[in-house]
């Protein structure tokens, strides 16, 4: 019994430390897979021994948030019981109608309204006490500030940051030590900031997932959610079913995640009773209410494999390790690589040398991740020189997190500037196919590229390039065609490609929509600033001016403009455009537009919007394969949404 108590104490400390990091936006200590396994072990030990410590995570809904503005929740924000078995959901549903919705992976917020006005926003905290962040109400999207209801109303939802915004924000952070692990980590860290302007820049979005309280008697869960939607809330997708249908619904929704259709992170599904009165009649056991809902988490399929080697990749300021292992099949795909993040993660997992036996999963069915070392062989050899420039490496320890990372000591290492070139040639930038990271690294090491304009002068080196390993006459011709095609640039893509700190696609659209490209250049040259443009603000404006004030950037821009032609106003939004108030989903290959990004840019220029998944809000699905059996086509047909080809779109909307 003493050994089991020691293990319980160890698990409680470990899980609470992990929760503290998880809920307060810090570096994550363990994966969800590991947390769930430890939580299940703790629950089993508590049931077996009867020993339940006061601070056990089985008795708490979360973790006490850091901050000064702590307040009690009017209605405790309890956790949901969780399962990975569809049969348990069926038993829970019984003969009742149920609703299925996403279990979003962000930060839970509780919003209160009185007499038609928003009066309070609390973070979930530990479920009993949260932080009051009402001062951020204008910095978070997805909910109204005023509603046409004069009673008392409480809404609970998840604050999330989309994958595209996460990638863009992380891309702006030069120090890899300070980058965020995932969108949930970023959302949590963002809502801990004191500056509303900085929070707004990160595009945090509230997604209502339950109407906790309303004075009116509305027993239907579906009607309660419809009411929120009519009031102007962004509400989670949902589908009505029952015990007999839940398996098929879960299968379809899981396919949406596996197909990459979700623009915001999810880590499972939730079912709730349609009869809200019945749901409220349950008891509270441990840290959850028995009828409040049931969370379904995907059964992570772990595969055992052997490490072949660790690949060390130098980019910006960090040399990052990637595990390359014997290929394994996971979630229908073959996986042979997984990021190990940093030296601290290697130490935590106990990764060794070639032959080390490891377990790998696809976290949330998307990201390959090493979760455990089964049998360590030898020791990891940390490289003593940079793989790109061969300068000595150095290990640094972050003052904030204690994380160990490996760095190149050469300030002029080409790889330290590589990410800006990757962004320059990306689809959101100049869209130059064929210039991979590895290719540009080789060209940098050969001395062919030292600034953006040099990409347009590569023709002078083609005789040498075609004789290099991996190249040839045809590949050089294709690369040249892609470079020449990019000489005519959309202004939004061009500004994004310049890699100005804090200026992504959204900011570029706002600038071009207001000024056009000529106006952008004029303000650069006169230092007039951009803070009068809605959504830019003083911080982004200062960042642009500071970037241009660096003579190297100004000279580089001048030489680049000598090589390319930038349209003046292609991104300005026509408020009376042909796509006004319409929402499109674009899938599959396109032929009229250069790519789907250009297609999306056109729709947005015509005052329309493009989303990543089909819902009842979608007006048209554009797919050149009308008879496709893809999940998007199926969903569109189920909802009665027209499916049109690109040619039909051109005929109707151009």
List keywords for this structure.
alpha+beta, Helix Hairpins, D-amino Acid Aminotransferase, Chain A, domain 1, OB fold (Dihydrolipoamide Acetyltransferase, E2P), 6 domains, five-stranded mixed sheet, globular
Q: What does this 3D model show about the protein?
A:
This protein has six domains: 2-59, Orthogonal Bundle (Helix Hairpins), CATH 1.10.287.610; 70-296, D-amino Acid Aminotransferase, Chain A, domain 1 (2-Layer Sandwich); 303-408, Nucleic acid-binding proteins (OB fold (Dihydrolipoamide Acetyltransferase, E2P)); 414-486, 5' to 3' exonuclease, C-terminal subdomain (DNA polymerase, domain 1, Orthogonal Bundle); 489-566, Orthogonal Bundle (DNA polymerase, domain 1); 583-653, Rossmann fold. Helix 1 (2-23) packs antiparallel against helix 2. The model has no long low-confidence stretch (mean pLDDT 84). A five-stranded mixed β-sheet has the order 2-13-10-3-9. A five-stranded antiparallel β-sheet has the order 16-15-14-17-18, with helices on one face. It has a four-stranded antiparallel β-sheet with strand order 5-4-7-8. The protein is globular and about 75 Å long. With 654 residues, it is an alpha+beta fold. Helices cover 34% and strands 22% of the residues. It contains 21 helices and 26 strands.
């Amino acid at each position: 019994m003493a050994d089991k108590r020691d293990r319980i104490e160890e698990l409680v400390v470990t899980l609470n430390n992990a929760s503290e990091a998880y809920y307060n936006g810090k570096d994550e200590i363990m994966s969800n897979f590991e947390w769930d396994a430890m939580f299940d072990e703790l629950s089993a030990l508590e049931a077996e021994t009867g020993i339940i410590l006061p601070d056990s995570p089985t008795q708490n809904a979360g973790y006490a948030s850091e901050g000064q503005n702590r307040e009690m929740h009017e209605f405790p924000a309890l956790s949901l019981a969780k399962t990975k078995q569809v049969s348990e959901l069926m038993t829970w549903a019984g003969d009742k109608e149920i609703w299925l919705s996403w279990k979003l992976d962000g930060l839970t917020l509780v919003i209160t309204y009185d007499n038609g006005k928003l009066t309070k926003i609390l973070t979930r905290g530990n479920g009993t006490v949260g932080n009051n962040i009402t001062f951020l109400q204008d910095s978070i999207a997805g909910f109204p500030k005023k509603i046409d209801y004069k009673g008392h109303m409480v809404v609970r939802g998840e604050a999330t940051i989309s994958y595209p915004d996460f990638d863009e924000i992380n891309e702006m952070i030069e120090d890899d030590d300070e980058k965020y692990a995932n969108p949930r980590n970023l959302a949590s860290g963002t809502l801990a900031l004191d500056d509303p302007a900085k929070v707004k820049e990160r595009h945090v979005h509230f997604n209502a997932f339950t109407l906790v309280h309303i004075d009116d008697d509305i027993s239907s869960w579906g009607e309660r959610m419809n009411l929120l939607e009519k009031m102007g809330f962004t509400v989670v997708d949902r589908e009505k079913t029952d015990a007999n249908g839940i398996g098929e619904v879960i299968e379809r929704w899981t396919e949406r995640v596996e197909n990459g259709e979700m623009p915001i992170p999810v880590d499972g599904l939730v079912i709730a009773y349609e009869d809200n009165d019945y749901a409220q009649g349950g008891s509270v056991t441990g840290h959850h209410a028995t009828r409040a809902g049931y969370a379904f988490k995907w059964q992570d399929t772990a595969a055992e494999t052997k490490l072949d080697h660790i690949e060390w990749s130098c980019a910006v300021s960090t040399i990052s390790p990637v595990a390359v292992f014997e290929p394994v099949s996971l979630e229908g795909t073959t996986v042979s690589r997984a990021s190990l993040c940093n030296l601290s993660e290697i130490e935590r997992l106990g990764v060794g040398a070639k032959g080390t036996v490891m377990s790998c999963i696809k976290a949330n069915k998307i990201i390959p991740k090493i979760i455990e070392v089964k049998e360590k062989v030898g020791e990891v050899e940390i490289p003593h020189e940079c793989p790109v420039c061969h300068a000595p490496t150095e290990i640094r320890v972050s003052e904030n997190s204690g994380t160990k990372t490996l760095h190149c000591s050469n300030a002029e290492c080409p790889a330290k500037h590589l990410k800006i070139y990757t962004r320059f040639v990306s689809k959101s930038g100049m869209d130059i196919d064929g210039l991979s990271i590895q290719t540009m690294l080789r060209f940098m090491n050969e001395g062919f590229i030292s600034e953006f304009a040099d990409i347009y002068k590569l023709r002078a080196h083609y005789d040498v390039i075609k004789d290099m390993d991996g190249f040839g006459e045809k590949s050089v011709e294709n690369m040249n065609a892609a470079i020449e095609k990019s000489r005519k640039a959309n202004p939004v893509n061009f500004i994004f490609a310049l890699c100005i700190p804090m200026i992504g696609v959204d900011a570029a659209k706002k600038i071009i929509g207001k000024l056009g490209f000529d106006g952008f250049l004029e303000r650069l040259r006169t230092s007039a600033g951009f803070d009068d443009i809605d959504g830019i603000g003083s911080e982004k404006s200062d960042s642009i001016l500071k970037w241009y004030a660096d003579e190297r950037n100004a000279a580089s821009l001048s030489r680049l403009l000598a090589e390319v032609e930038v349209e003046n106003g292609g991104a300005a939004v026509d408020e009376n455009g042909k796509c006004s108030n319409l929402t499109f989903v674009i899938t599959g290959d396109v032929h009229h537009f250069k790519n789907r990004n250009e297609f999306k840019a056109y729709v947005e220029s015509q005052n329309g919007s493009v989303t990543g998944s089909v819902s009842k809000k979608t007006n048209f699905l554009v797919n050149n394969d009308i008879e496709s059996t893809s999940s998007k086509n199926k969903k569109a047909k189920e909802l009665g949404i027209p499916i049109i080809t690109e040619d039909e779109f051109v005929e109707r909307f151009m």
